[in-house]
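Exercise 3.2. Students should predict the tertiary structure of the chain below and write it as structure tokens, then compare their answer with the key that follows.

Predict this chain's 3D structure.
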Amino acid sequence: AGRLDTIWEKITNSRTRQIRFGQQLLKYAAVFVLAFLAAWGSLQFFPGGGADFSQVYNEIHVPYGERSEITLYDGTRVWLNSGTRLKFPLVFKADQRTVFVEGEAFFDVAKDEEKPFTVHAGQMDIRVLGTRFNVCAYPDDQELYTTLEEGVIRAGNTLTGEQVQLKPGEQAVLHLNSRKFTLGAVETSLYTSWKENMLRFENAPFSEVVKRMERWYDVKIHVDEEINTGERYTMTIKTESLREMLRLVSFTTPINYEIKENQVFIKVPD
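Answer key:
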């Protein structure tokens, strides 16, 4: 029982549980309660104190249309974009810190040279000591991204074993079709502004605009085959509603649109 009390005190007093979910607090808090109960059950099952809390995982799911931020047990801050799952242990192991991401997340990793930090994101692994970077790995995407804002990271391709090292301002893209990385310089704010509740497009194709709108507003968008999808878009969305966003798109591409609950129908003008 003494070890259990110690673990619980760390959970309640550490920054790990400083979750900023607004109205979603109770829902996400339930995840931690369940994880704690699982850990408690392990202690009861192993009365000799042999429970390994690094094998007990928390999992957070952020629905489409929402964004959230948490602080992990070691002080690492994580921003989670719409439709993202984050899985991490109740307590990190003595020699490593490992988390799993499905979706998009921005990490501000607390530096600890004794414990490298690894993010498993689909077919891409990212290894760091202390740095700030974005990772985008939605399961329905054919390209996985990691974009480095500060520090140094190494991205690994689990399909081939290929590895690339990034410097600030660089982005590595893992193309699942070719099973290869490409590495290049980018404007990092285009890929990290979402954590500031801004959606930015810079010469983006219509398909990318539609995909990101679906996740941002939690809608399903149906596009008429006759719509000209060859246009490119440069714009920044802050507090605009879905209807206002569609109006902005219509300035570049003539469209008619209809919103029915969480369904959007885009057609050519009559």
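Discussion points: Residues 32 and 56 are 11 Å apart (CA to CA). Residues 1-48 have pLDDT under 50 and may be disordered.
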